[in-house]
Amino acid sequence: MFTIRAATPADATILTELRRVMHDTINGPHPTDWMPACEEMTRRRLSDDPTFHAYLAEVDGVVAGAATGELRSRFPTPDSPATVAGFLIALSTLPAYRGRGIGGTLTHHLTERFLAAGCERVGLFASRQGAPIYRELGFEDLSDSIVAMNRFAGRPVPVNRWTTPTPSDHSEVPVPS
Q1: Secondary-structure class of domain 3-136 per CATH
Q2: One digit per residue, pLDDT tens: the chain, 177 residues?
Q3: Are the CB atoms for 30 and 49 separated by under 8 Å?
Q4: Count of H helices and E strands in the chain?
Q5: Which one of 44, 81, 84, 149 has the fewest CB atoms closer than 10 angstroms to its CB?
Q6: Domain map (residue ranges) of the chain
């Protein structure tokens, strides 16, 4: 049996460790140099950001899993006129506690909080491991109409019709025709 509770700023360390576990489970292991900044941001957001929500699952007083999410302002669309949506940022369960329903319960708990706050939708990016849980909880796969993409700083972009060499003095930047 486990219990769910709201996280406090004092939980920033364990929330960051669970975020590391999540990333390592998806495609790790990873370096840990990002963790101090993550812990500080988590502590700050738990202290003074009412849009940030975090919940912990405990088994016999031991933190076994966590879910974090946020309320986001959004532009209305034809399918959803609401101007606020929930977004699940991270979900992780320690390996020793997996298979007990902790991840699904945390997701349900956070989703219900967001829906009660007036969200018409709750979104997330799912790992291959997590997708079946989210489908069971009513999340829909939008991959037929949406492709998740990122552009990372510092990675080269192939020269194409939108990119042209920029003069080093930036005085004349050619515009693609």
Answers
A1: alpha beta
A2: 999 999 999 999 999 999 999 999 999 999 999 999 999 999 999 999 999 999 999 999 999 999 999 999 999 989 888 899 999 999 999 999 999 999 999 999 999 999 999 998 999 999 888 899 899 999 998 888 878 788 888 888 777 666 665 555 555 655 565
A3: no
A4: 4, 5
A5: 149
A6: 3-136
